[in-house]
């Protein structure tokens, strides 16, 4: 039955019913409203003129409601300089080359135009990939993806993160459903080459964040190959803290009349104004001492320490961690697993006080909140790298401080490069009371831990490699460095011997990507920028054994050189240095000391009651052997413990003089006899009491057992009498043929005396194992019924065959 409702009018009469809209009509009207909104949005963008119109807030921009609400929910209100200049041009569809200081908000400058472009195109999951964002490092890609999730929470686009570290097959299954992808160059190129059905022909927008790093030599091949897969008709946005405008770069990326937006060129400096920048001149062997003293003086700070190679990062982290500076330490390099890198990034971002040792893998674009100090232990390769490193602090109007460690040979050239980039930097000196020499501690740690010594050797080799490979020879002068002092400062017993091989393209070798070494591996590198050394390319068609694969693993344990020796290979070929560096000869500690003209100092070590003279390395190694040291230790003595728990030797002898002072021997003997006699009497009394107590307990148990047996027999007799005279129904346990099952038990002989005196249990009689000769009783064994059991008493133990026959007859008699 249909029902209707009447609405009451304002004057008391019935109001007119509004005609109902069908679902189809509602959808049509909604679609029309959306089209009208889109048309208004397009007109507003066409009329937008950033030069004549002052734009300060995001509400002043012609953005859709989904983007506006996402920005409002993420607490983004005021535009930065780069955003105010780049977003209006990008909304109009122009290609952009954007350059601004670190921490100036470049991420939103390309994410907002990307979302708006896909929204105006009414992009759906059936249209395929619409926008591609390329980042040089995994950490920066993760950060961009998180910002995209925040501001795009109200959009219906699907977005994915492709950065390697996971199975290529699992990622390939989801790529076809993504509208937006944030990726690293190497991993994306893998999917374009290997993933079947991955279509990018409808791409609308390409974004390259930190473009100068992506365009570097290490990524040039990957970027060129990646661009070949993308359509020509697209919008391209390039952003970086330092930007290049070379014709070759623009031609390679197929930019169409790009707009160059450079905010920092209008400023007086290329770094943030609220960043305090300093440098100290310290010799290479003293850099770790200065770093340790700095960390110990700033325990309530958040610090990032940059090194030039991952091996140096690992050595500094392991050494400082064992020395316990008093604050949490972390380390981050490109060789780590993806899960570990993300976890370390999260922990450092959440920490209030911490120190992060890192390579340039986190020097670009990564936003760590509230970083107080940026320390550059190794000189950056150029001024642009310096700008990116110090940009990890003083982010967007916050304060920060940076310190650069320079060797005296690097001071003049590096300061000239920084001056050309309008970077103000001041010299400071370290106070004498703040210097903390740690050379002896590092030597002790390397002596105790072979794996730390191995890391120190690798840190030395990779540092020398990085200096040799630098292009700017006016700054990096290998011959002026004190390498022997640096090796000693790392705790090494001697300087590793290195042979240089010339004729290689140093820049290409240093930045060679590793993604093509194992393209199908889950943990294959994606070219994320942590080029710590030139890795030698392996032959893919070569069949390698398990031990060869084990030898190829780098920096996992100290046994890699051992396995290379087993294979008969050169120790310098498979240690990550390629053909560039090779170790001439592996020397033992004694040989290194002899080559350096050093002698082991003579010292004496006390072992128990004896002393051992240490005058050679062989004697020093003897201290690590417990078996050999045992020969010099005092032999143990056997001890006995008294009742009070005091230990005494088994035999305690006194000398003659002490014995005479105690008194006459006869008197001492008498005292000893009396004392021992008293102890014996006391022990005898205790033993008698204990035996008496045990006999009483035994008698009580026997009486209890006899009482229970008597009660059980009485209960059985009552049950038998009741069953015989009852005359009731048939018993369940009575056979059907009428035979009484208890007839056999009744036929057995019983003890009449015990039956007549059931109320009084029989008294226990003493057991007799034999009987005297004057006894008149028969020698034949006697039977007795005791407690419902048959007991056989014998006058003596069976001695012959007759006694055994008599015993058997008594047992068989009824």
From TrEMBL:
<feature type="domain" description="DEAD-box RNA helicase Q">
    <location>
        <begin position="56"/>
        <end position="84"/>
    </location>
</feature>
<dbReference type="GO" id="GO:0005730">
    <property type="term" value="C:nucleolus"/>
</dbReference>
<feature type="compositionally biased region" description="Basic and acidic residues">
    <location>
        <begin position="790"/>
        <end position="799"/>
    </location>
</feature>
<keyword id="KW-0547">Nucleotide-binding</keyword>
<feature type="domain" description="Helicase C-terminal">
    <location>
        <begin position="287"/>
        <end position="442"/>
    </location>
</feature>
<feature type="compositionally biased region" description="Basic and acidic residues">
    <location>
        <begin position="540"/>
        <end position="555"/>
    </location>
</feature>
<dbReference type="InterPro" id="IPR014014">
    <property type="entry name" value="RNA_helicase_DEAD_Q_motif"/>
</dbReference>
<keyword id="KW-0347">Helicase</keyword>
<dbReference type="GO" id="GO:0003723">
    <property type="term" value="F:RNA binding"/>
</dbReference>
<comment type="similarity">
    <text>Belongs to the DEAD box helicase family.</text>
</comment>
<feature type="region of interest" description="Disordered">
    <location>
        <begin position="640"/>
        <end position="803"/>
    </location>
</feature>
<dbReference type="GO" id="GO:0005524">
    <property type="term" value="F:ATP binding"/>
</dbReference>
<dbReference type="GO" id="GO:0006364">
    <property type="term" value="P:rRNA processing"/>
</dbReference>
<dbReference type="InterPro" id="IPR027417">
    <property type="entry name" value="P-loop_NTPase"/>
</dbReference>
<keyword id="KW-0690">Ribosome biogenesis</keyword>
<dbReference type="Pfam" id="PF00270">
    <property type="entry name" value="DEAD"/>
</dbReference>
<keyword id="KW-0698">rRNA processing</keyword>
<dbReference type="InterPro" id="IPR014001">
    <property type="entry name" value="Helicase_ATP-bd"/>
</dbReference>
<feature type="compositionally biased region" description="Basic and acidic residues">
    <location>
        <begin position="699"/>
        <end position="708"/>
    </location>
</feature>
<comment type="function">
    <text>RNA helicase.</text>
</comment>
<dbReference type="InterPro" id="IPR001650">
    <property type="entry name" value="Helicase_C-like"/>
</dbReference>
<protein>
    <recommendedName>
        <fullName>ATP-dependent RNA helicase</fullName>
        <ecNumber>3.6.4.13</ecNumber>
    </recommendedName>
</protein>
<feature type="short sequence motif" description="Q motif">
    <location>
        <begin position="56"/>
        <end position="84"/>
    </location>
</feature>
<dbReference type="Pfam" id="PF00271">
    <property type="entry name" value="Helicase_C"/>
</dbReference>
<feature type="region of interest" description="Disordered">
    <location>
        <begin position="503"/>
        <end position="555"/>
    </location>
</feature>
<feature type="region of interest" description="Disordered">
    <location>
        <begin position="1"/>
        <end position="34"/>
    </location>
</feature>
<dbReference type="GO" id="GO:0016787">
    <property type="term" value="F:hydrolase activity"/>
</dbReference>
<dbReference type="Pfam" id="PF13959">
    <property type="entry name" value="CTE_SPB4"/>
</dbReference>
<dbReference type="InterPro" id="IPR011545">
    <property type="entry name" value="DEAD/DEAH_box_helicase_dom"/>
</dbReference>
<feature type="compositionally biased region" description="Acidic residues">
    <location>
        <begin position="520"/>
        <end position="532"/>
    </location>
</feature>
<feature type="compositionally biased region" description="Basic and acidic residues">
    <location>
        <begin position="14"/>
        <end position="34"/>
    </location>
</feature>
<feature type="compositionally biased region" description="Acidic residues">
    <location>
        <begin position="709"/>
        <end position="722"/>
    </location>
</feature>
<dbReference type="GO" id="GO:0003724">
    <property type="term" value="F:RNA helicase activity"/>
</dbReference>
<keyword id="KW-0694">RNA-binding</keyword>
<keyword id="KW-0539">Nucleus</keyword>
<dbReference type="InterPro" id="IPR025313">
    <property type="entry name" value="SPB4-like_CTE"/>
</dbReference>
<keyword id="KW-0378">Hydrolase</keyword>
<dbReference type="InterPro" id="IPR000629">
    <property type="entry name" value="RNA-helicase_DEAD-box_CS"/>
</dbReference>
<feature type="domain" description="Helicase ATP-binding">
    <location>
        <begin position="87"/>
        <end position="261"/>
    </location>
</feature>
<keyword id="KW-0067">ATP-binding</keyword>
């Amino acid at each position: 039955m249909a029902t209707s409702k009447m609405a009451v009018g304002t004057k008391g009469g019935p109001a007119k019913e509004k005609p109902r809209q069908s679902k189809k009509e509602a959808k049509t009207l909604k679609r029309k409203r959306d089209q009208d909104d889109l048309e208004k949005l397009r007109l507003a963008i066409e009329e937008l003129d950033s030069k004549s119109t002052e734009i300060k807030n995001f509400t002043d921009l012609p953005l859709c409601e989904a983007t506006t609400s996402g920005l409002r929910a993420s607490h983004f209100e005021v535009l930065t300089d780069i955003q105010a200049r780049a977003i209006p041009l990008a909304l109009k569809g122009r290609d952009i080359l954007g350059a601004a200081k670190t921490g100036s908000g470049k991420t939103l400058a390309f994410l907002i135009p990307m979302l708006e472009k896909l929204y105006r195109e009414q992009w759906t999951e059936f249209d395929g990939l619409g926008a591609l964002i390329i980042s040089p490092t995994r950490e920066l890609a993760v950060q961009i993806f998180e910002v995209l999730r925040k501001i795009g929470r109200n959009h219906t686009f699907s977005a994915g993160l492709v950065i390697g570290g996971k199975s290529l097959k699992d990622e390939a299954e989801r790529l076809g459903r993504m509208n937006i992808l944030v990726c690293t160059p190497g991993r994306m190129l893998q999917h374009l080459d290997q993933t079947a059905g991955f279509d990018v022909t409808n791409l609308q927008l390409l974004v390259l964040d930190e473009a100068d790093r992506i365009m570097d030599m290490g990524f040039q091949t990957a970027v060129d190959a990646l661009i070949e897969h993308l359509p020509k008709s697209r919008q391209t946005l390039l952003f970086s803290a330092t930007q290049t405008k070379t014709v070759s770069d623009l031609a390679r990326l197929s930019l169409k009349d790009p707009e160059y937006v450079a905010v920092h060129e209008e400023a007086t400096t290329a770094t943030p104004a609220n960043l305090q920048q300093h440098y100290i001149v310290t010799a290479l062997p003293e850099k770790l001492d200065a770093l340790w003293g700095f960390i110990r003086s700033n325990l309530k700070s958040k610090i990032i320490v940059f090194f030039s190679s991952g091996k140096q990062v690992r050595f500094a982290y392991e050494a400082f961690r064992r020395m316990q500076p008093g604050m949490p330490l972390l380390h981050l390099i490109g060789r780590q697993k993806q899960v570990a890198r993300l976890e370390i990034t999260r922990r450092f971002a959440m920490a209030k006080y911490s120190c992060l040792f890192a390579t340039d893998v986190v020097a670009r674009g990564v936003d760590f909140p509230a970083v107080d100090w940026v320390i550059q232990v190794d000189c950056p390769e150029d001024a642009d790298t310096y700008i990116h490193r110090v940009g990890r602090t003083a982010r967007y109007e916050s304060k920060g401080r940076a310190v650069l460690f320079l060797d005296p040979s690097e001071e003049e050239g590096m300061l000239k490069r920084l001056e050309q980039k309008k970077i103000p930097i001041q010299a400071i000196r370290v106070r004498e009371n703040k210097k903390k020499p740690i050379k002896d501690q590092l030597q002790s740690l390397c002596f105790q831990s072979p794996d730390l010594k191995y890391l120190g050797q690798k840190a030395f080799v990779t540092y020398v490699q990085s200096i040799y490979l630098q292009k700017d020879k006016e700054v990096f002068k290998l011959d002026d460095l004190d390498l022997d002092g640096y090796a000693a400062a790392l705790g090494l017993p001697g300087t590793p011997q290195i042979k240089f091989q010339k004729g290689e393209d140093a820049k290409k070798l240093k930045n060679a990507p590793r993604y093509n070494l194992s393209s199908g591996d889950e943990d294959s590198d994606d070219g994320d920028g942590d080029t710590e050394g030139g890795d030698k390319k392996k032959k893919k068609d070569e069949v390698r054994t398990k031990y060869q694969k084990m030898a190829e693993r780098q920096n996992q344990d100290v046994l890699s050189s051992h396995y290379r020796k087993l294979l008969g290979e050169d120790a310098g070929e498979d240690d990550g240095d390629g053909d560039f560096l090779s170790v001439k000869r592996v020397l033992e500690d004694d040989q290194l000391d002899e080559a350096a003209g050093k002698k082991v100092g003579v010292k004496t070590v006390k072992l128990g009651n004896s002393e051992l003279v240490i005058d050679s390395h062989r004697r020093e190694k003897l201290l690590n052997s417990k078996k050999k040291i045992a020969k010099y230790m005092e032999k143990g003595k056997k001890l006995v413990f008294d009742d009070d728990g005091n230990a005494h030797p088994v035999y305690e002898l006194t000398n003659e003089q002490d014995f005479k002072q105690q008194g006459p021997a006869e008197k001492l003997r008498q005292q000893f006899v009396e004392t021992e006699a008293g102890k014996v009497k006391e022990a005898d009394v205790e033993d008698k009491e204990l035996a008496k107590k045990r006999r009483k307990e035994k008698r009580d148990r026997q009486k209890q057992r006899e009482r229970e047996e008597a009660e059980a027999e009485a209960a059985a007799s009552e049950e038998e009498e009741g069953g015989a005279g009852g005359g009731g129904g048939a018993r369940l346990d009575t056979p059907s043929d009428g035979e009484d099952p208890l007839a056999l038990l009744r036929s057995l002989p019983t003890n009449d005396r015990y039956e007549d005196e059931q109320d009084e249990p029989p008294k226990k009689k003493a057991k007799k194992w034999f009987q005297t000769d004057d006894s008149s009783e028969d020698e034949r064994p006697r039977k007795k019924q005791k407690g419902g059991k048959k007991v056989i008493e014998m006058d003596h133990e069976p001695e012959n065959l007759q006694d055994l026959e008599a015993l058997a007859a008594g047992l068989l008699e009824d």
